[in-house]
Amino acid sequence: MQYDLIIIGGGHNGLTCAALQASRGRKVLVLERRGILGGLAAGEEFHPGYRTVGVLHDTSSVRSSVIDKLGLESHGLKRRSDEAAVFAPQKDGPGLLLFDDPVRACDELAAHSASDADRYVEFRAFLARIGSYLRGILGEIPPPISPRGAGQFLALLRKGWALRSLGRETMYECLRIGPTCVQDWLDEWFETDVLKAALASPALLGTWSGPGSAGTTALALMQICTAGRGIVGGPAALVDALVLACESRGVELRTNAGVVRILTDAGRVQGVELADGSGVEGGLVASSVDPRQTFLDLIRPLDLPGDLGSGIENWRCRGTTAKVNLALDGPLEFSCRPGAVFDTIRVGENLEEIERAFDSVKYRRLPVSPHIDIHMPTVLDPGLAPAGHHVASMLVHFVPHDLEAGWGDTQRADLLEVCLNRLAEVAPECRDRIVGYQVVTPADLERELSLTGGHIHHGEHGLDQLLSFRPQATCARYATPLEGLVLCGSGSHPGGGITCAPGELAASTMS
Amino acid sequence: MTKRYDSIVVGGGHNGLVCAAYLARAGRSVLVLERRHVLGGAAVTEELHPGFKYSVCSYVVSLLRPEIIRDLQLPRFGLEILPLECSFTPQLDGPGLVRWPDGDKTRREIAQFSQRDAEIYPEFGREMMKVGRMVKPILEMTPPDPSSLRPGNLLDMLKLGRMFGQLTESERILQAKMFTMSAIDFLDEWFEGDLLKATLGVSGIIGTFQGVRSPGTAYVLLHHYMGEIDGAFRAWGLSKGGTGQISNAIADAARHFGAEIRTEASVDEVMVRGGRVRGVVLEDGTEIQADTVVSGLDPHRTFLKLCNSSDLDAEFLGSIKRFKMRGSSGKVNLALDRFPEFTCRPGDGLHVRGDVAIAPSVDYLERAFDEAKYGDFSQRPFMNVVIPSLVDPSVAPPGKHVMSIFVQYAPYALKEGPENWPQKRQAFGDAVIDTLAEYCPTLKESILHRQVLTPWDLEQKIGLTEGNIFHGELSLEQLFFLRPTPLWSRYKTPIPGLWMCASGTHPGGGIMGAPGANAARRILKTR
């Protein structure tokens, strides 16, 4: 064997898995189709002199255990010193600068509603109560659907017991709210529209669901309970540290090396075939690309065991997120807070506006008023743009991958236009500041980043596609029915976003 | 001083009557108190136009548990179910789709749209029946309390665990999918034809404030597949003489077993003294004493109207207030002087002797939901139309017909406020008739009388809070041991002696009778 482990895809999960396995003395090769490493976490120059920190920009949920195990801080990674506050601007109103810490959030919230300021304290206390339980679920290999042997049964019972130990009321509250829609849940807590919109927003990132869709409370809980302090320099800085961690452990990183086939013999994986026709032998192959590509494109149907193929055919991965990057000659300024500069901004007045934006994907149209999640990395890291200039990294919801009219130049221009129209409602001077821009549609994400359906999470975060069902019951524990093939990307538990958790958990299964 | 009863059942709906009948059969002295002049609650027949008998609210039956029919000897008391064998989805620009009693004929119909769907369809039916069978035992079960470590409860949990343990892995996956997916995502895994998916998908939304694309609706689809008449799954039927006949038969059975039933006896308050139930107080001030009071009303009415808030703790009241009612449907009943022809399939043949669904596409259904989401009734609603007089001539004069139109969506919470429904009632009725008239052009001129029921009317007339026909949304967080609230899902309530027996408890709404029977079983076990 040339390598002990070959990893398909050099995104943050592939790199995490590679470095962790190399730590155990494995000889590891990472194969990346693109010219750069990092996938959705890779930073790029999108306009001369202006850089993004990745297609995704939120690093608040990166697993601390990965940073510790790989000693990423010794490779230059720095956590932010302060929690990020989210700014939610309003057309007519003071806007809301929201901190996680209820004490710091108090004054801002009280300007909207005294009762919400009080409730926020209870809300955060409730989340703190269930946080460690949820982090436990998200940080572990999901339980099997059909437990075998006393050990697996006991593990299941322990999970149940851990939930019960939260107390009877809290246990029932978790069971009750999990399947609800985030709108109902937040309505039970708060009355301020812009607060509810800001809290719901991250749960809806990338999903084919609106705030009124059942199951979105579970996503919100997952997101809120794993969020901590982000990384200085964003996903790109994480990738830089991961690359150094890989190199220092002797991982071979090859770019411009697209895998076209996973080679099997007698029901066992033998290695991979590259686009140039060459083959590489490996004892194990770990795929960090999405499940549809892994099973339907890279493996011959005949080599797929059982009904895995038909199960994966039904895997839902309809992308709903577009990316617009703006190069600006100054910071975004909001009319409700003149002079203030924010690095994390969520544009959405209320949940109804976000729900209406979601309606558009159902009918394959562009939203009239999109929901925009903005990050200005240049606030903390001015080196990403010329002096005094800024970059606005905007994730735009909800934008259908399968736009009815198809994606052409007109549609891309329309997309930019609806975004800027919405942004101008709260930041009227934004248009005058633009010196360059980049529009990345879900179709572009599919083509350029090899994301099936342009789905940034490698597959919908639906209740039926999470935990022990992600991506299928038979391969939810990272190993697949095809001997020697392991999954290690966002298509596995606990799903997408910059967490490095799938890579970490997959590595832990390869003894 | 009036007589003292073992049990008083508040509300003479079908569940209250079932519960009363079982209690009386076990030798208890039982009194049923019904506010209206007619028994049945939402399962009533009323002659609102001379000679025309409307099944005012609930109009079809399939979920009524066979063991209840047997135990209460309902056929003896006049219950007769006439099967509805066809299901017809008309189109404006196509032949429409009919599902016939004959499987081959149905396959040929489906093949007009997709050969592949036609081949898969029988397998789909078998799969659904399989899941239905898996879920069935759960219907008859009192939900266990997963948080309790009492031996009896642990045993119940163990039973549930064993039931799950006996399933194959693929059955477990299928079950998990049904509980979490949207009806359309689920159907997408099977079929490609849009009209077929719309036709099947509507079962996932009936009575809920959800769209066909809302996660969780696949379960409601199953809920409607679990219907059972004479042991045949997915068979719907009409009660001869109208839906009220079901209630009348159950009432007669209850009387036969010794229960006393009073109509026009509106209960004002549940009497609680010394921490337990002592009876009820009627609107006219009469007090009637009983050891147990069983509420056949929905959880909101039971705890927020009948009970004194000082008898309940604030946390419990909060959980009841959070229980989502959210009525989403209305009803239009018509008296017609002739049969209304459907343009795409003329004639009054077998195809219209079942239910007719106005569900021409998935997007049509979803758009109807979108309008309701933002607080307006659907301008072009989903409708489930039945013409009972074709199957049961006793409900209309010769040659004439009654038409029952179930309409969705009509959200209780209009954006102008629910109290504005009376002003919108006629506009709502017009939207229904206008939409239906596109499929049956002669409809408008044949209407002799129309009754329009909005969710507001269902609340005011029938007593369904927010007009919810299931006494509470059938969403995952409001089912099984969470219905109506996590700590009180076992028919018992925090007030000793007060019980619940209606659709707001497990297993939920529809003319099923299971909550009434389950509650009676629990009450009888308790003393």
What is the CA-CA span between the terminal residues of chain B?
Answer: 25 Å
- Total beta strand runs of chain B: 20
The 3D shape of chain A can be described as globular
What's the rounded overall pLDDT mean of chain A?
A: 96
What is the share of helical residues of chain A?
25-40%
Largest β sheet strand count, sense and barrel closure of chain A: 7 strands, mixed
Low-confidence stretches of chain B: none
Name the chain pair with the biggest interface and residue counts per chain.
A-B, 34 and 30 residues
How large is the count of helical segments of chain B?
17
* Low-confidence sequence ranges of chain A: none
Derived structural class of chain B? alpha/beta
* Backbone structural class of chain A: alpha/beta
- Assess the beta-strand content of chain A as a share of residues: 15-25%
> Treating each run of at least 4 consecutive H or I residues as one helix, how many helices of chain A?
17
Short recap of the structure:
Chain A has 511 residues and is of the alpha/beta class. Chain A has 17 helices and 16 strands. In chain A, the strands form four sheets. In chain A, strands 1, 2, 7, 8, 9, 10 and 16 form a seven-stranded mixed beta sheet that branches. Chain A has a five-stranded antiparallel beta sheet with strand order 12-13-14-11-15, with helices on both faces. Chain A has a two-stranded antiparallel ribbon with strand order 3-4.
